[in-house]
Fold these 4 entries.
Entry 1:
Amino acid sequence: MSHDLTRVAILGASGYAGGELVRLIDQHPLMELVHIGAHSKAGQTLGSVHPNLGGGDRILGTLAPSEVPDVDVVFLALPHGASAAPAMALSERTVMLVDLGSDFRISDPARYAAAYGSQHPAPEQLGNWVYGLAELNRRNLVGAQRIAVPGCYPTSALLALGPLVTEGGIDTAGIIVDALSGVSGAGRSVKAELQFGAMSDSAHAYNLIHHRHRPEIEQGIEMVGGVDPIVTFTPHLVPMHRGILSTAYARTGLTEGELHTILLDAYTDAPFVNVIEEPPATRWVVGSNNALIAVKVDERAGCAVIVSAIDNLLKGAAGQAVQCVNIALGWDETTGLPMTGAMP
């Protein structure tokens, strides 16, 4: 490959999101993947960890920043708490850092501590990373060198709610978000509750009230609306491999047609977001970087019901990360990203 291409490294390439990054970057016409690092899988071949990728003779290195060669972009696809140290070490270089983890999403140290139950190791860095929800924060992504990719649940919820908050179409006090996620959202874990025997023909809610994505959703609403929202968020794991379906409820005084128009206008120039008439299914977006959104109004209750569907590993993780880099570097944001889902 020509070294005129943007040189890329991935730390955390052995996980599901990291594997999707490898797949996307290998097919990206303007990027060259020159380093892949992992923790427990270091030293193994890429193909043995991700058989779907083949991998040839590529070997997973470690997560040590000293192993990262001279590159233009480093993607950090690491668990919570694992990105800060390599990010700080790599900050000494002239390099774009893109964190798919949760270490830099929350901009306020006090909110971070409340959300995650610990102090941030580099609180002075919070607020210096651009929140990478492209459709709602595009202007700040242009030229950005530090990008915090939103969580999968907040991506789904904020795409549904953001324009309606910005235009004052819904009441931000008492928003409820129920979200259903495929088990890949829990990562490559061997926990008993994630095994086939536990998940097949079953579904369950988890981390009620205190899920760490709730403060991130509230922060996103503040970002687009300048308001102090109250959100109740309940995530559920359901027996599917991937995808997120979020249903948000909020008080409104507008009609269904008015809310639909707000969403249509907001996403006119957003190639990955489609506003549709009827509620979407996750199957329609899996395998793509798309988001599908529909809104209905229960006029009897004065309640807007907004439903969104995304692929948690693409629009909710790796695809969104690549989309952010495309925008930051001035490329067409769709470059190298799948725009159609896979059926059945």
Entry 2:
Amino acid sequence: MAALFSGAVYGASTIAAGVYLPSTIINQFKFQDWHMLQTSLDAVASSAIIYKVAERYGYVKLKPRSSSPIGLFGQYDGNVIGGFLLGAGMALSGSCPGTLFAQVGAGLRTGFYTLGGAILGGLAYTGYVAQAAKTQREKAGAEPETVTLDENLGLSNDTTVALFESVCLSIIGASVAYTTGSDWSLYSAGGGLFIGLSQLFSILVRRSMIGISGSYEEVGNHFWWLTRDAPWPTSRQNTLFAVGMTSGAWVLAKVLPSFVKGHVVETEPLLAGVGGFLMIVGSRLAGGCPSGHGVSGLSLMSTSSLVTMSTAFAAGSLVAPLFH
């Protein structure tokens, strides 16, 4: 039940933050609307502080995200390839592995089309891609490594977190001062804090951080268990989180309809479906999505998360202008 309630809080916070709209995601990649970046950085910055306090008082201690090597061209090749597919899929669909559940809860058609592609992506990853990546990784003798930003910089964790907070605030400030597509306001600031508070709720009730893309892998594992006589899947926590996220978004949209925009620009069904497929294959190759790597992984100062999300943003910026 903890995963279900935690997901509900995250789903509601995604609606409240206004980052569920396809146009917000697409226009960020086109550098026409900076709300997504501002809200995301605000969420990551607040989440990092929340985790640091929880860790300092001994409530929780979590392991940073490890790299996802495939054995092709380096320790972070899976993060780079997966991040590229993730960003391309987000740009095509105007969604992300977590946001689409909020879109479904709010009744957006884009969310349903993207969800269809995402489920197929989960089936493809668990049925074929995961084994191919594992075979290549074992052939190359590549092993995951857990390296943090403070280890790379040669600084203490406290200093690195302080530096990270400064960078987040500086980027937000620069986007406000030097761009024309910024709507920075109390709404933008509060949007990121809503997501940060959902992270706090997850840490308090589950002693873990938010993440969503594993739900598609769980669905795929159950599908192949039914059709291939594969081993019985033991994990369903991510799926419960996803159900909770959809429910939380639906409840907020019904109780406080002012949070849901009256006119929503939907993504074309084909682009939404293809985007959903790509971003799930990519997020699982990279070991996480904008929730797991972005909000949570960066809060833990994970190098793999920075590589994944930087690549995803770059890929989305390349793809969005070509299709929208």
Entry 3:
Amino acid sequence: MTDEKLIGEIFAYFANIGVAAINLSDSLKLGDKIHVIGSTTDFIQKVKSMQIEHKPIDKVKPGDDVGLKVDDRVRPKDKIYKVL
């Protein structure tokens, strides 16, 4: 089994643009692999695009709220894990 660390939770999803709004409890950067898990959600993807206040960024620190482009539909309260 792959090692994973809980790094955040989704608080909103914008289906029209495929972006999840996430509150992070740990750092995250472009290229990291994440695992999104919820009651009906379960997929792994690489971080390809992130924004804070509509500005593209390469990395975020704990406590930041970030918009993250996701490959599949997500729901509020879904958990975000960093694949280690």
Entry 4:
Amino acid sequence: MSFAQLMRVEFKVGMRNYTYPIYFLAALAYGVVLGAFPEEYVSTMAPLFIFIDPGLLGFMFIGTSIFSDKKDGTIGALSVTPMEWRDYYLSKTIIMALLALIGALVIVVVGAGFNVQIAYVLIGTLLVSVVYTLLGIAIAAKYRDLDDYFVPLLAVMVLSFLPFAAYHGLISGPWGKVLYIIPSYPGLYFFHAGFEEIARETLMWSGIALVIWGIVAYNLAKIRFYKYAVEGLR
């Protein structure tokens, strides 16, 4: 099966099981809620909502997608074809990244209008989505259902929200600096750059940090998916 065919199948399955429509409805709901906040709070709340949609929702949805493919035998069937496994998880990553970009656009436009530096938001969304989707694939590969996935999902959620506290001064000192290694932290700078002035040097280093995280997450996904999802079926 070619990469393009995998993309088409992935999109059709996501539409058929309502994963993608639910994703869009969640983005719309976040946008409506954001729009209900007083204007002075929008720049604080928008980055949080934008992160939740492409980051954590993508992390959760990719897990359910992997579990579904395990249960219905898709991975087993693909294992006997001359397919490169990287095409499988990269097709899912690209689909989720595209959904994340659309979701972020919906949140920003519905909740804050067009007076936003949307390019920064979309760049951050793309990078964060890729990182969390690949991390989701790496972690979900070991499990068979959402019940088993819940504990690591909860752990990732808790860790990913800590940088928000550090960014707003609730966590300071050495611990605040240590939290920068969590991928949601550099993503925050891009999300905030849509609503307030952020130094370009800061954005540059944030982008580099997310690219490094993307490389690490890709290799984790590659190793763990083959070990648990492919070899685990044999």
